[in-house]
Amino acid sequence: MKMPENSKYYTNNLLYERKSVVTGAGLGIGRQIAYTLAEQGAQVVVLDYRKDLAEEVAKLINNEFGDKFGIKMAFPVVGDVTNKSSLENSFKKITKIYDGSLDIFVNNAGVNYPCRIEDILLEGELEKGKRQIEVNMLGTYLCSAFSYHLLSQ
Among 51, 59, 149, 60, which residue's Cα sits nearest to residue 105? Predict the structure, then answer.
């Protein structure tokens, strides 16, 4: 999505060389956030549990903005926000990529499995609800804890 230069929202290189991470950046809102951060000059770690999507988005961003800013703009990192050891590995990679500091962290990963109250006890619905709680709550909690130390540098 290109912002016209005469738009009141247009800024030029506002986030140049800022270091950012976006969780759930493989699809939807997270993908657009990662793209917009890069469009404004921020480097972006595209964190997603699906390797193919993380790589696809990072490639898109690097192809689109790498020449404009003259630096590598996006880095794919695989991680499951609900799994502490997976996130530990992901944040080791992020720490290495960004030399131990971080400017922007977008805790975006989330899922939505709509279910009517009368259907919760049906087969499979409770598992979906548990997964939703794990991603949306536990994932946010764990990512906040892991990113805190990098953001405070």
Answer: 149
**What is the DSSP annotation of 6-40?**
TSTT--SSTTTT-EEEEETTTSHHHHHHHHHHHHT
- Cβ-contact 101, 153 below 8 angstroms: yes
pLDDT tens, residue by residue, 36-71: 999 999 999 999 999 999 999 999 999 999 888 888
Pairing of strands 104-106, 74-78: unpaired
Q: Which pTM value belongs to this model? A: 0.88
Token pair listed for 20 = 């950012």
The helix-helix angle for 28-39 and 51-69 (nearest 10°) equals 20
- The rounded radius of gyration (Å) of the Cα atoms in the chain is 17
The pLDDT of residue 6 is above 80:
no
What is the overall mean pLDDT for the chain? 90
| Whole-number pLDDT of residue 1 | 41
Cα dihedral value 29, 48, 79, 107, nearest 10: -10
Say which residues have a Cβ less than 8 Å from residue 70's Cβ, sequence separation at least 6.
none
